[in-house]
Amino acid sequence: MVFGLIDLNTVNTDDETSSFDSPSSSSGNLELPASAVCMELWHACAGPLISLPRKGSAVVYFPQGHLERISDHTALASDLPPHVFCRVVDVKLHAEEANDEVYAQVSLVPDNEIEQKWKEGEIEAEGEEEDTVGAEKSITPHMFCKTLTASDTSSHGGFSVPRRAAEDCFPSLDYEQQRPSQELVAKDLHGTLWKFRHIYRGQPRRHLLTTGWSAFVNKKKLVSGDAVLFLRVADGELRLGIRRAAQVKIGTAFPAPYCQQFTSSSMASVAHAISTRRVFNICYNPRASSSEIIVPYHKFLKSLAHSFSAGMRFKMHFEAEDATERSRCSGLVIGVSDLDPVRWPGSKWRCLVVRWDDMEGNRHTRVSPWEIEPSGSASGPSSFLVPGTKRTRGSLPTTKPDFPIPRDGNEPSDFGEPSRFQVLQGQEIFCFSTPHGGQSQSQCLSKMRCFPGFRTSMISGVASNIRHLQEDSGTPSAGTGFVESSRFCKVLQGQETSSSLPYGRGPAANQFQENSGSVRLPNYGSHWSAQGQGYTQMRHSAQLVQESSPSSVLLFQQPNSPPCNLQALHLHQKKRETSSRDSVDFERYAREPFQSGSALEDVLRNGSSGQSEEYNQIESSYPRGSQNLVSMCKKGCMLFGFSLIDGKHGASKEDNLTESTTSYNHGTKFLACNEEQVHPSPPVPIKVMSSSCTKARDMHAVRDVLLT
Amino acid sequence: MVFGLIDLNTVNTDDETSSFDSPSSSSGNLELPASAVCMELWHACAGPLISLPRKGSAVVYFPQGHLERISDHTALASDLPPHVFCRVVDVKLHAEEANDEVYAQVSLVPDNEIEQKWKEGEIEAEGEEEDTVGAEKSITPHMFCKTLTASDTSSHGGFSVPRRAAEDCFPSLDYEQQRPSQELVAKDLHGTLWKFRHIYRGQPRRHLLTTGWSAFVNKKKLVSGDAVLFLRVADGELRLGIRRAAQVKIGTAFPAPYCQQFTSSSMASVAHAISTRRVFNICYNPRASSSEIIVPYHKFLKSLAHSFSAGMRFKMHFEAEDATERSRCSGLVIGVSDLDPVRWPGSKWRCLVVRWDDMEGNRHTRVSPWEIEPSGSASGPSSFLVPGTKRTRGSLPTTKPDFPIPRDGNEPSDFGEPSRFQVLQGQEIFCFSTPHGGQSQSQCLSKMRCFPGFRTSMISGVASNIRHLQEDSGTPSAGTGFVESSRFCKVLQGQETSSSLPYGRGPAANQFQENSGSVRLPNYGSHWSAQGQGYTQMRHSAQLVQESSPSSVLLFQQPNSPPCNLQALHLHQKKRETSSRDSVDFERYAREPFQSGSALEDVLRNGSSGQSEEYNQIESSYPRGSQNLVSMCKKGCMLFGFSLIDGKHGASKEDNLTESTTSYNHGTKFLACNEEQVHPSPPVPIKVMSSSCTKARDMHAVRDVLLT
DNA sequence: TTGTCTCCCTGCGGGAGACAA
DNA sequence: TTGTCTCCCGCAGGGAGACAA
């Protein structure tokens, strides 16, 4: 049940027609095999940008890129083809002992069949439909992630726990006492237990972790800007993970020993395995932002559907270390040629010579086709970006399809379709509502790859067929299928929740078209659904802008996009009170994705028929913190005191209707901020930290010396 | 010059006839090649028990033992012979980064010639004469080693520097000041610099290291019982090493990464190298006490000269971790058989099945012939132990030489003949003066292997030919040639010095025979010499006994053994004031070892003609701390307030003459204590530390976790 | 609601002499 | 001479409410 999934602005809701009988446990028939580390925690730590190939899916492995990654360019791989078509045999989740960095070990086996298809130019989707959202399970609803503030990491005092997070994730305290406190025990990725004193004190009262917190910060070498995440798994156990800020990635200081094993030392064995068509392993660091050397086959295929030529403008989702770079990742293709015509003739790896619009970043002057998205007036994405434009099955999104396009169909990304815990982060959706063509659109779209839930739900509002939704999801313009997945939990900063609400398609679609200037953008990523939604409330536009404090934890809510998940949860809560608390049958969604007549479709069909009265009906049934939730919603979706319709930060619905361009700018701004949530890296507080907490830093330096 | 070699009870003196023109630098044509670590420091850290094969010498390598050492007993080595005859190609000195443990990488190459000789039963000494004491150089006279007390390692206060040590090793302070202090910078094995504040304060005044000391203790994870050693090398630079107590060997917690490389992972490559007769490397940990898998060829040969049979009693120098086990290492041979008749037929490795007299220790029930020394009434050693018995060249020390004995000649141990910094530790010498036969003798002799200087000088007093000295040195009874070498510096605990005094042979030999009940035992290890000695003083017996404090640092002085080195130094000081302070030409000794008519022989001839008036003449010329030295000697060789003739701990000369048995018991006791100097491991202070310094220990635990 | 600040207070530990072995 | 003890004192840092954003 979604009982515990309640969080601040987005709510996990279930389709009432789906079966919720199976309890949600932390194990199950998971797609990824049980590994050394807790899977939910792994995904929580990996963050929403993670893109993991699925077991059983078809991918392309680029030895050239692999050799590029490891410094040894002299390594032999001469007899390897530039593109090795593989089947993913296994994906194992791991975490570095030294720095808690998560990584995955991907086992690949060369697949002649895929290669054959590739050579024959055959377009195939090879029944990956079932694989897309399939087999995902094990929700971990009680979770929060908070970027550490300077106070959190200072040596004076402990960790300030967001109230809702504490109430959601921690055992409840006896508030009758003068200073309620308890001991929390949380297990990290390595199974290490950490004890904290959780106390509720201060004037005004707040939740704090005191004793034990400092030790944790020091041991983990956390600095302000890093993020910690707590999650309560099914049996009530607490898990504890960290996400380091991009700048101070210790991974560079401590080269991952296990990862290293797969990157540097075993290139020869990889080559040998490929030549003998045996299984080989590749290390996959989801937080490393280098070009991936494993790309889903269909993404690879689709990227080549474009005709890249000099002069073509493009956008790139540039996952730089510095999150701020993210909003400037457009460029111009100035040539198409082999990177290494001698050793890798015909390789698509970085076959495009590009010039970036801004020359600040020391970016590669070469990119691979699948890394970028063409932009420009004539580019394909606009074909479905125009509101109301219904795309039909088989229509090609690109204008110049000089390469066979994969057949339409339910072909989602192999790299983990957003499945759950997607949160409403609607601002970038304004691209859809404000098609300014070319660059702006593409810029938006490229950003959207982080939030596939939005895209999907967006499309669900446009297309009349669920399958079209999937189809569109696979269009290059929508991220070339390489959707960064928060497979299990896109844990969001601060008060954000871990699930989302699918958006109904019928009335919603109409509404969407009617209000072509504004888009209601419910979160959709996890394919959860809610039958009823407080739709009236949803239409309140709201936006939270990250304020001056860079490490503040805020939710970004698109103006005019309905922050309905809260209500939807309430609604669902009301309707499914009898279900077990933590059980949500995602598996069923996985097995029956987007089938007409399925439970999910029912939700989609009815989702947008929000009834505020339903919301009112259920507000009393909310178990904990319901007063706050209700008051928030009554105040126009206040989030932690911020009104979601606050004119200061958000635009009213009317504003957006008339000032879509302004809204778009908001959207642009948002994206940078949102990226910062993922890579919490405010420069200022980090600097403050390094000066105000010299002692702790010194200790870290000492440890660094010791460890190296 | 030996100017700076002065220390408390033993003195480095030079033969006045030798050339002292070449300054003693820390480099030179050293036998061991310059390696990553400071050689003097390495040897200082390795301690006096170290036995390193010499470059160029012939050794026997036992793959069987190698496989035994590494846990992988399934490793292939089936095609290797049990005895691999090798030539030592190189010896490289290293130190573990993690724990400062010293080790050596010995490069061996299979040598057909040696093998051929072995197969033909040929006895050879193959010109190793020159190699024995050859090429040793680079004295590092200013050095001291102190076992850390609880106070030294406590968090309150610093390190109490023994006065003499401070005066000898550290730059002198301006004692005019109220609290004289200076900054010391010392370099450890890895080249890391450590800064300490050296202050002379307190009432009464004492030398202390304060600021910086705690950091050093914590970084190195020192506990009370560990020992630190400072040495001042030629250019005045300070070196800083540590010797950990045996019990808390961190080496077990941190398996030596580099060492590991040579023990576990490369057995296959070793086998391959041997089969192709190429160079291979073996890790050699001088402080690990397991049976050595590399044994000098001549030692191997001589050990097989004995006819081992069931019922034979033996003694074994048991280098257990726990030093206290050292005095009970006798046993009975109960069988001779192959350890592994299938895989290693005919192997001498642990071919003797033994039963130990005490069954406490979990010792091997099998030993190798070269590990033990036969004992019993009929055993050979007594043949030259009887005072006055002159052995002639070619006489066999063993009674049943069923194996060809190596030809007589100047064939010292390949494993580092004691060269310098041997200190007078005469107690075990009483074996010679009190021959009780069999077991007692052998026990003494086996102990003597630690102090080959004594043996050599002892013999020099007996034999009329220098070459006989070497010959005797090679007899099995005198340590089977496997002499633990303090090649460069046997750094002694506390106030002990780092050089020794050769003992004249002519008059000394006479004297020796005259006073058959007591032996004057000047230190001899470094082949330094003094022409004149305050011999009257020397004959004062003195002994320091380790008092109740287990970590106290004391010198053990045999009653009735003359602590003459002090005076000898004074004498020499007087005579050679014009020489440069730190220059001692050891090289010349190395080039001309024991040649008749050489400078050294002159010394030996005249050494015992001590003149107390000479001592009196020079006392005023001693540069620093001379008053103390003089007063000490005048008081009957007081050492730090302990009278060397104190009846409480030592026996007077007369006592020893009439109570040699008692003296022998003293000797037995001494040896255990001396071992403790090498492996300073008092259990009590360590326990105290772990309770009183919990914080520091916790930090270590943290680091352990981080480092593993 | 929560980030930051300041204040309080404890305890660690460095540094000194006292004292005794 | 030096190991141990105790005392002094500075300071790091944990923990609390105040205050404001």
UniProtKB/TrEMBL annotation, chains A, B:
Gene Ontology BP annotations: auxin-activated signaling pathway; fruit ripening; regulation of DNA-templated transcription
InterPro entries reported for this sequence: ARF_dom, ARF_plant, B3_DNA-bd, DNA-bd_pseudobarrel_sf
Record flagged with keyword Secreted: no
Presence of the UniProt keyword DNA-binding in the record: yes
Region ranges (Disordered): 369-412
PANTHER family: AUXIN RESPONSE FACTOR 3 (PTHR31384:SF5), AUXIN RESPONSE FACTOR 4-RELATED (PTHR31384)
Protein name (Swiss-Prot/TrEMBL): Auxin response factor
Origin species: Olea europaea subsp. europaea
